[in-house]
Amino acid sequence: xxxxxxxxxxxxxxxxxxxxxxxxxxxxxxxxxxxxxxxxxxxxxxxxxxxxxxxxxxxxxxxxxxxxxxxxxxxxxxxxxxxxxxxxxxxxxxxxxxxxxxxxxxxxxxxxxxxxxxxxxxxxxxxxxxxxxxxxxxxxxxxxxxxxxxxxxxxxxxxxxxxxxxxxxxxxxxxxxxxxxxxxxxxxxxxxxxxxxxxxxxxxxxxxxxxxxxxxxxxxxxxxxxxxxxxxxxxxxxxxxxxxxxxxxxxxxxxxxxxxxxxxxxxxxxxxxxxxxxxxxxxxxxxxxxxxxxxxxxxxxxxxxxxxxxxxxxxxxxxxxxxxxxxxxxxxxxxxxxxxxxxxxxxxxxxxxxxxxxxxxxxxxxxxxxxxxxxxxxxxxxxxxxxxxxxxxxxxxxxxxxxxxxxxxxxxxxxxxxxxxxxxxxxxxxxx
Length: 432
Ligand code: SF4
Ligand code: SF4
Description:
By secondary structure, the protein is α+β, with helices and mostly antiparallel strands. It is built from 13 helices and 13 strands. Residues 94, 227, 246-247, 249, 251, 253, 256, 262-268 line the site of one iron/sulfur cluster (SF4).
């Protein structure tokens, strides 16, 4: 009995719609990137402080003197990006670029409210509005959605220049001394530019103006990720061009080239898979690393070796970047202490303590290297506000003995930091 059951042929139709999964994964990724673009500055991970003129990482100001942190991070990002272009091509455009996300969203809203053929064509054809959608309400809804989208996206840059509490004050019209007076105008201009981009520019930017796309192309090779087409089943395409209509870059996904405009979004794979899911077969398109199937030299091993060679040299730089960044973190000083002579008599020095963090600290100062009772500090203890500087005068008694003094200024914060700054004081007029 068991034997006869096992002989019944079973055709596995497959529940999964792999293309749809790809589509949903891409949409989730694009939404995640927008969320990350807000969370990075809002969480204090990275932003710019326009008042202090400093980069802020993890709520700490990064000065140019924090060389290792800046260059280490820059090398890590640059080499990581090169590895991405070399292996996955212009996948950034299809999955992460906000410009593409905005353009796709704008196209979706236009199709939804004005019909499938109302899109702005990259070939220059005029949009065709469906007769059933020619209603004033549809135009109003489309306009309102674009204005809303531009107003929302215009908020994101603000997070890169102000903490979330200050951004909140901006939108609730609360007076805040940290806000630039012209910010409402700057925001207005940003919204207008975004509105123009969403309404008209969309993928024209990607196609004709994006320098970054051209830059990514430099790193593409025959081996980078691309859409591959199953030529052996080409007769199935006889009366079909579904993948071509799914491609919003206006390519024919069956004929992708090394240096074409494909952004590896996978929408064509999704379309073909959807089509074939009806009869339980796989689509004719898929993502593939390595040389196109037409090449006889193409083997998995060859492809992987070429890719590995390609990223080997970047790995060395990545390692350098990681090491520099780690050293930068280890040697980072949350305060900066400096001192300089500032009066013509030569007896007064200005000590400056800068707080590079965004929380206040209590600072105490003391001086060594001078005879007791022959110098005076304006103050030897003060509260230093977040991201602020404080200047203190050190006055040296002109009646000390003549000679050269190696003077050390020490600063201690209440949370354990200690800084030391050396001054060479030359006393010419004092006692013999
Ligand atoms: S969607 Fe699939 S079957 Fe249709 S033309 Fe494209 S590759 Fe061929
Ligand atoms: S060919 Fe396919 S993967 Fe490439 S851009 Fe067009 S739809 Fe996206």
